[in-house]
């Protein structure tokens, strides 16, 4: 049986054929792209509908209270990311991926039947676990498969699939909600995504942990002792969080990136609704930003393999800041649409490139844990952003919250420019 056929019909623990490279693993890589699209779709079912449910169905008047679901999602996902890396090193990638999909199954049902806002918050706790386990694992598995040469492209394709599906689902749920109402029809998509994601993960995805071990055997001994193969989890955590200038700068930039994504998710729809936009138009704006972000990552991930990581990240953060300012000063649909396009373009420059930095620097023996720590910080930005934006919006109004996040985003870009070193492998 050839490698392409066997990679599509593995048992629960069967490893993929042990070859490194995108072309050598194209069938399994493509399957993981499809699985991650379903992971993104699970998140996309909420982007348009949940802020409006908080306002129109549950009548939450305080912005801080209305954004509690993002706090619950972000905090849970951040912690789960950390454990996803450790668990995938210990037990393998595939069991962690399957566990993530099992936890996703009740999420759309809870959103459909929720009699109180607490049910919605609990659904987002489960969604955070799903995203932390499933998305982290697909990232790790793709890095395992492709090896060092095309890491930026691999991350661009992975994130493009996830956020492209998020955008398409956000637009679809907005159109469904405009026609049939906020519940239950928009969440039927989530039921289908969870079923397909679990089925593909159990029946078709194969184990990739041995690919990381094979790459580790070929890995050069690093000059920096902080990058050697024998690192305890606490040492990995310290390097990614504080001591390594590239890894820790990436963690800070990732946190701020998702801080402004929390703003786009939770605050922008409320601002648009306050200016009288229809649900369908709000859904279009909610989809435009992740659509540009998702599709753009195919180009920017490849581009970072050619020109390097640092300057692309710096430029992307500054473009994001400019886009957020345009949301604050704009008051019409065309201006907000332009802002969403710019925000998506800036995020596309940043998102896969940050993951590529982690893959560049981290030794294959502890790379999964490094990805987990990075994603702990990055997705903690959802919780920080929701709390910060909600508190500022309650105290000073929605526009003040948007200006504050724009300033933080610009500052993050300058930190990367001054502190991060270039990590792209030299050919």
UniProtKB/TrEMBL annotation:
Annotated signal peptide: none
Cross-referenced InterPro entries: MFS, MFS_dom, MFS_trans_sf, MFS_Transporters, Sugar_transporter_CS
This protein's record includes keyword Electron transport: no
UniProt KW keywords: Cell membrane, Membrane, Transmembrane, Transmembrane helix, Transport
Family annotation (CDD domains): MFS_MdtG_SLC18_like (cd17325)
Protein name: MFS transporter
Main location class: membrane
């Amino acid at each position: 049986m050839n490698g392409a056929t066997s990679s599509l019909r593995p048992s629960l623990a069967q490893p993929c054929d042990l070859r490194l490279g995108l072309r050598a693993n194209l069938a399994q890589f493509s399957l993981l792209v499809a699985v991650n699209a379903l992971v993104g779709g699970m998140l996309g079912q909420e982007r348009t509908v949940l802020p409006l449910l908080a306002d129109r169905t549950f009548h939450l008047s305080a912005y801080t209270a209305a954004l509690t679901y993002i706090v619950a999602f972000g905090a849970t996902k951040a912690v789960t990311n950390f454990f996803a890396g450790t668990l995938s090193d210990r037990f393998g990638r595939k069991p962690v991926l399957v566990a993530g999909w099992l936890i996703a199954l009740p999420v759309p049902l809870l959103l459909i039947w929720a009699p109180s806002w607490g049910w919605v918050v609990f659904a987002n706790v489960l969604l955070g676990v799903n995203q932390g386990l499933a998305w982290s694992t697909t990232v790790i598995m793709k890095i395992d498969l492709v090896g060092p040469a095309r890491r930026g492209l691999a991350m661009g394709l992975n994130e493009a699939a996830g956020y492209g599906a998020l955008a398409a689902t956000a637009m679809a749920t907005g159109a469904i909600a405009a026609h049939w109402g906020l519940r239950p029809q928009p969440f039927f998509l989530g039921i289908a995504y969870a079923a397909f994601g679990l089925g593909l993960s159990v029946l078709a995805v194969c184990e990739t942990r041995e690919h990381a071990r094979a790459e580790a055997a070929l890995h050069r001994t690093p000059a920096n002792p902080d990058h050697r193969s024998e690192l305890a989890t606490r040492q990995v955590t310290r390097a990614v969080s504080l001591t390594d200038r590239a890894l820790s700068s990436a963690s800070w930039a990732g946190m701020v990136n998702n801080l402004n994504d929390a703003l786009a998710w939770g605050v922008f729809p409320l601002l648009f609704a306050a200016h009288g936009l229809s649900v369908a138009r709000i859904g279009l704006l909610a989809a435009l930003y992740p659509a540009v972000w998702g599709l753009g990552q195919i180009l920017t991930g490849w581009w970072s393999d050619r020109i390097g990581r640092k300057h692309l990240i710096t430029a992307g953060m500054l473009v994001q800041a400019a886009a957020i300012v345009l949301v604050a000063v704009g008051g019409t649909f065309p201006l907000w649409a332009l802002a969403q396009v710019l925000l998506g373009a800036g995020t596309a420059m940043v998102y896969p490139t940050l993951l590529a930095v982690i893959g560049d620097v981290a030794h294959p023996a502890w790379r999964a844990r490094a990805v987990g720590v990075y994603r702990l910080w990055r997705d903690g930005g959802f919780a920080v952003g929701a709390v910060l934006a909600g508190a500022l919006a309650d105290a000073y109004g929605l526009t003040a919250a948007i200006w504050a996040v724009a300033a933080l985003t610009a500052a993050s870009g300058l930190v990367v420019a001054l502190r991060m070193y270039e990590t792209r492998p030299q050919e």
